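notes to self, project folder thing:

trying the whole complex as one job this time. last attempt i did each chain seperately and stitching them together was a nightmare. two parts in total, labels are on each line so i dont mix them up again. if this works i'll redo the older ones the same way
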Amino acid sequence: MRMGSTVLGALAFAALAAIAPLLPPWLISLATIAFANALVVLGLIILWRTGLVPFGQALFYAIGAYAVALIGRYTPIRDVFFVVFVGAVAAGIVAYLIGFLLARYREIFFAMLSLAMSMILYGILVKTETLGSTDGFHVEAGSFLGWRPQGGTRNLAIFWLVLAYCAIAAWLVAYYFRSVAGSLTHPIRDNEIRVEFLGVSVDRLIHLKLVVSGVLAGIGGALAALAVQHVDPAMSYWTTSGGFVFVTILAGAGSVAAAFVGSLLFELVRSIAVTLVPGEWQMILGTALLLTILFLPEGLGSLVSRLRQRWRRGTAP
Amino acid sequence: MKRFHGTFVFALAAGLTFGSVAVAAAQQTAAPAAPPVKLGIVSFLSGPAASPFGVPGRNGAEIVIEALNSGKAPAPYDKVGLAGSKIEIKWVDEAGSTAQVVTEFRNLVQRDQVDAVVGYISSGSCLAVTPVAEELKALTVYFDCGTPRIFEEKPRKYVFRPSSHATKDSTGAARYLLAKKKDITLFSGINQNYAWGQDSWKDFVGAMGVLAPKAKVDKELMPKLFQGEYGAEISTLLTSKSQALHSSFWDGDLESFIIQSGARGLQKRMPFIGTTAESSIGRLRDKMPDGTIIGARGPHGPLAPDNALNKWFRSIYMDRYGTAPTYPSYQMALSILGLKVAWEKAAAKKGGAKPTTDEVVAAFEGIEYDSPSGNVKMALGGGHQGIQATAYGTYRFNKQKNEPEVIDVIRFNAECVNPPSDKTSEEWIKAGMPGAKC
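result (full assembly):
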């Protein structure tokens, strides 16, 4: 079964990459953003399973994005693999440092403290006039190991790049969930003391999860910056974090695949809502979220497991 | 712990749902006719910038396009729609992340196949959309965003901005202040700490440095955006002997500051120069102190020239919405009219056939035309950036008529308050505003 889902996931990503040139270009740009954000959501799921709601994940998202933008502004380096790597490392370092503080808190305290951290970065960026303050600045187009695509080809190339990162991240996170550290997520949520008695430091485990989710958010931000070609401080504002929490609720923390499906669905619903009711599109999103909570409290991902259960019960002798 | 999740999530959902209820705007689309021209119109329809800028901008577009489609606009705009084709509107909300704004722009161009996009209020949106518009070769007309960076960083081909950029708001304010108070020696400023506030203050101080080198800056206050409570700032200002207070505050922050400082008599010591204050006079009415220097980001609203186009625009707007149009409405109107002039010039060359984007672009560059707020000249950025005259005036609340008035209006030529085409705004002010024709 596990081997099965890995193969299935790999096939899904490969199929998406293969049909991408046939899809309309607007859908490609929408999906690029959706999947870049899905990486952040994937990081959120890791913490979510432990019972932690980070309301400041935009901090790492913005650091990844600004790292890419700053390299483009002050150095001649344009290689996408290198800049995304720097973005991920920068976000990871920040996550490691603030982890010493954050890992000691739970529940609302954790949520609010992480929110505060992202708002500190927001405040600093807004006050930095050389970086365009709230207007932000342009991100230089990347090159792919020396190849510099233009226009539509560039968007397609970025989409493939995002897909590649997503596929690797999905596989690694699924692997992590099956490891000992990963399996201890639910127990931490249910009874921390018991986990401590197993001889595991819960704080260190949460610290690790924070770094992993920070790195994922950093990669997401770096890819989003490359796709949008513009960064601004709003990337670290709390509404951005709220958006990620929203998608996580929609997707549910049950499976890795849900992060990608949920994020794509969210972008599609939002885009359709903006088209249908330009002034009240938030209303549709809010309603969708409320309905999800009421009827699918475990998120969209739980639909699959429910079906699977029903199928098993049906075929059981 | 589970319950914690639930409550948290529920609060978030409730917030998102009910937050949007606060914003209400009637949505209508123009009736389609034989080969219509599709326009994407982007403005803030939700969020804090909706009520001061987004909705007035949207209303301006709605009313002007309706008049154009019915052929009822005054000459020279009396041809139906754009060169005889009716205009079909696709409304889009500018609220949301920059990624969202860019995605929606791509959707307009690639999915909805609009012929042109008119819109954008936030300078961040304009800066982010510009390279995408160039990439997609999509004709894009900005109507309100102020940053001069768009055409100063790089020459653009498909992007236009008939409304003049923010530099003239600060140079105009300095010139008006000096016309009223020649012997000023000390002034202060209170501006929001974000791009618009920082740029406005920098340009104002630069212009004052050129025009009145003896005047010194006293207090330089940069509270954060949407702070709303200015007790400490007002106390600081009350200790100052400044003879004027510059501010680019808008909407909520402007109104809070005026009311809070009014209660403590600040304006009796130093008159307030509000570069965007015009958009708030309809709500502040007698709470706005007499003697406040009023700007409207150009010759818009009560500072607009007294011509036939202005009378027409004002009356159709008042008839529909019951309030006077503010500067975002004027900026929207002049942007749509600019597009119409360029479109019809391109169509005339083809004997009335629908022009291609490249033909409209070529026709748009460097045109000069009349709008409800006077003459517009596409003079900067290789003919892509408009310049206009600007005007400042002094506020007075007319108690007999029970309505706000702007008196002592002084107009400044476009060439007096805008940089020439071969210099960026910053260079021009630093160099001492050479070549300013006043």
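what i see at first glance: The first strand of chain A starts at residue 137 and ends at 138.
need to look closer tmrw
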